[in-house]
Amino acid sequence: MDAEEKKEQFIAAYNEHQDSIFKFFYFRVYNREKALELTQDTYIKVWKYVIDGKEIIHMKAFVYKVAYHLVVDYSRKKKEQSLDALLDEGMQFADNKGLSYSDTIDWMASMQEVEKLDETYRDIIKMRYVDGLSPKEIGEIVGSSENAISVRLHRGLKKVQATIE
């Protein structure tokens, strides 16, 4: 792949995934400006990787992997804000189009329980149900098999379900 093709691949990935990457960060750092900054940092790192002549086979998975590592680094530096505080500040969940008010409340209550989980479960549940990534994509991002991710999803959801009931 020549330089122009790599540039086009990067631009296409940016256009296709920038909103998803922003959302990925936003639902982890709960701060719009920080999410924008981390999104920019992600694409800067990806661009540097591309211009260094390294090949990226699965661009979406690679971008999410870079984003995942950036958010892990960030979370080690700063404690995440609670979902309750965000709701008090008027945060709205734009991705719940078509859900009734009661379904939206149920979804938010479930997300509050997800926040209480160990990060092993919390991160993959968010990647699956907030970011819409497949277990295979999540596995590529975190360096686990698709089967291991499916098991963690199942166990994490069981924990959430048990606390809600």
TrEMBL record:
The keyword Transcription belongs to this UniProt entry's keyword annotation: yes
Give the superkingdom in one word. Answer: Bacteria
Q: Where is the RNA polymerase sigma-70 region domain?
A: 14-79
Q: Which SUPFAM superfamilies match?
A: Sigma2 domain of RNA polymerase sigma factors, Sigma3 and sigma4 domains of RNA polymerase sigma factors
Sorted alphabetically, the keyword list is: Sigma factor, Transcription, Transcription regulation
User: Which biological processes are named by the entry's GO terms?
Assistant: DNA-templated transcription initiation
The record's listing under InterPro entries reads: RNA_pol_sigma-70-like, RNA_pol_sigma-70_dom, RNA_pol_sigma70_r2, RNA_pol_sigma70_r4_t2, RNA_pol_sigma_r2, RNA_pol_sigma_r3/r4-like, WH-like_DNA-bd_sf
Query: Does Transcription count among this protein's keywords?
Result: yes
What this protein is called in its record is RNA polymerase sigma factor
From what organism does this protein derive? Candidatus Magasanikbacteria bacterium CG10_big_fil_rev_8_21_14_0_10_43_6
Upper classification of the organism? Bacteria, Candidatus Magasanikiibacteriota
